[in-house]
Write a structure and sequence with these properties.
This protein has 95 residues and is mostly helical. The chain contains 5 helices and 2 strands. The protein is 65% helix and 6% strand. It is elongated and about 55 Å long.
């Protein structure tokens, strides 16, 4: 569960774990929608009830489609954001 800021949002997905986003401000609302669009998470309002939180967490933990989608995101992150690629881009920028 995250408030949906870029750092915690991406870190959660980087471990292949579905995320429950309770967006609070700025990029969190886009990240919440992105999690749902990717099938790797769900989102609720920040003022959601305990019962709603429980139900969404249960869904994320028991429905394997969310875990599969989150693992797919991990694969994409690893392919697209490798440290070697970042180092090459930085080297090109300073050359």
């Amino acid at each position: 569960m995250t408030l949906g800021g870029h750092g915690t949002f991406v870190r959660g997905l980087a471990f292949g774990v579905p995320v429950l986003v309770l967006p609070f401000e700025q990029d969190a609302f886009n990240n919440a929608r992105r999690a749902a669009d990717l099938g790797a998470g769900r989102h609720l309002r920040l003022d959601a009830s305990v019962a709603a939180l429980r139900a969404e967490l249960r869904r994320l933990l028991t429905d394997d489609s969310y875990r599969r989608a989150a693992k797919d995101v991990v694969g994409r992150l690893r392919r697209e954001y490798r440290p070697e690629a970042a180092a090459r881009i930085i080297a090109e920028l300073v050359a």
